[in-house]
Amino acid sequence: MDRAEPTIDDVPLDELGDRLCELAAHIAAAQYRWLRLLSAFDRRQGWAPWGCRSCAHWLNWRCGLDIRSAREKVRVARALDSLPLISEAFARGEISYSKVRAITRIATPESERELLMFARHGTTQHLEKIVRGYRRCVPVEEAEARHERRYVDWRYEEDGSVVIRARLAPEEGAVVIEAIRKLREEVSKTNRLPDAPGDGSAKPPRDRADALVEMARRELAGEKSSASSAERYTVMVHVDADVFGGREGACQLEDGSALSSETLRRLTCDGASVAMTEDEQGSVLDVGRKTRTIPTSLRRALVSRDRGCRFPGCTCKAFVDGHHVTHWSNGGVTALGNLVLLCPFHHRLVHEGGLGVRVEDDGRFTFMRSDGRIIQTAAWSVEPDGIEQQNGEFGLAIDERTVVPRWSGEYCDYGVAVEGLLKRNGFGDWPPTASGSAEPLEREAAATR
User: Fold this and answer.
1) Could you tell me the residue range of the domain that residue 27 belongs to?
2) What's the whole-number average pLDDT of the chain?
3) Distance (Å, rounded) from C-alpha 312 to C-alpha 57?
4) Considering all CA atoms of the chain, what is the largest pairwise distance in Å, rounded to the nearest integer?
5) Is residue 254 domain-shared with residue 359, that is, in the same domain?
């Protein structure tokens, strides 16, 4: 009688535990390589041609990560660019991604050696407590100096754009950032990152600007919430009749700022419009009634069908525009088959950003990049055995002890750990003894135990 093939339940428990530890180290080494690829992809803006708001949104769409995890992955990938010691240990599978994620929140080239020592000898919980303790121990003198350096300023660029700059204390900045983040999530239902790379090679996330403007608009209007994008505002645009006929002509806002024809088509896709008849000198002869491009009943059907932005990978559900695939000025009908919901970000890309959309014979919508490539979801995976093979090809000697911390249950003195980090990062003697200084470090250590 043939014996049954052994299963994983037949493996001795000790061997099973060793296998788990060894594979965890292999995964950590593979995650390091993945993050290095991510750093290069982000730095070179490989996500931009696909119509994504940021690298984190691309990860959310193409790699199946939730948006919060994707943002953390991008942050860690960027941090590793300037932390060679941590990167080297991570590349060998000696420390896990969870530990790297924790220490990169405060790591600098000056303090990474100490933090790496903590990571090798302690658990992720130890590291999280050390990081929290360090963040609460900024000297009062430094905090006062930061308070004095606060400012808000703005200037006008040659093209009429307004550049706003601000410097705030951390706690104040946190309030503003949280307000922008909350509104950005409400307006775009996707999230910021952004989180442009530190080398400045990528543009800052534009949805933050949308949130900032929305925050100011609500404050001035005394509003707590906002309706659909089509009902939020009316924009007055002066247009030559030839423009809607597909020919060249003047197109400008009420203040005289010029608009492109595609911008005009985007604004009139789904919004309130007022027809104004003018003579050759620009004098208004007649003002028509305000009309809506998409009737309310049709918009309800559109929202019921699309349930949010239809652009691949976009999760925006609110503040969406109805887009005419064939614009009504070009003969397109205002009917469900010619309409698709797009968030403001992707609506702008389809009109002014070179992306395209068409309706297939079966009614599906196909989106294209500017080079004609179809934008569609694609996913791939790597089997664990493949990861081990790749690590072997990189010359990594990984076993069941590689990722295990060198901690034998000893008490962790968080106060001493935080004190060492503060000194390493140039805060001088710590804890300070002068009157009015920060609380003794022992209290901070007690708070983290």
Assistant:
1) 8-137+384-448
2) 76
3) 11
4) 102
5) yes
Q: What is the pLDDT of residues 220-271, one digit of tens each?
A: 766 544 444 444 445 566 666 655 555 555 666 665 666 667 777 777 777 6
Residue environment code for 419-445, b if the CB has 16+ CB neighbours within 10 A, otherwise e: bbbbeeeebeebbbeeeeebeebeebb
Beta-strand runs (E) in 168-296: 237-239, 251-253, 272-278, 284-292
Let me know whether 332 and 258 are in one domain: yes
Helix (H, G, I), strand (E, B) or coil at 209: helix
- Asked if residue 430 is part of any domain, the answer here is yes
Separation of alpha carbons 20 and 406, rounded Å = 17
Q: Where are the beta strands (DSSP E) in 328-426?
A: 339-342, 356-359, 365-368
Q: What is the pLDDT of residues 89-135, one digit of tens each?
A: 999 999 999 999 999 998 989 889 999 999 998 889 889 988 888 87
Please state, in angstroms and rounded to a whole number, the distance separating the CA atoms of residues 396 and 408: 26
In angstroms, the CA 246 to CA 261 distance is 9
In the numeric block, which tokens belong to residue 317? 């559900």
Measured in Å, how far apart are the chain's first and last C-alpha atoms? 60
Residue 276 and residue 166 share a domain:
no
Is 338 found in the same domain as 244?
Answer: yes
SS3 11: coil
Q: With contact defined as beta carbons under 8 Å apart, do 126 and 412 qualify?
A: yes
Tokens of 92: 């060998």
Select from 439, 440, 438, 441 the least CA-distant residue to 418.
441
Task: Kindly tell me the burial class for residue 111, based on how many C-beta atoms sit within 10 Å of its own C-beta (0-12, 13-18, 19 or more).
Answer: buried
List the alpha helices (DSSP H) in 63-122: 67-80, 84-91, 97-103, 112-121
Task: Record the tokens describing residue 388, joined without a space.
Answer: 């081990």
Decide if 154 is inside a domain: yes
What six digits make up the tokens of 185?
A: 């999530």
From 46, 33, 73, select the one nearest 193 (Cα to Cα): 73
Token match 């979801």: residue?
A: 377
Write out the two tokens for 345: 């970000």
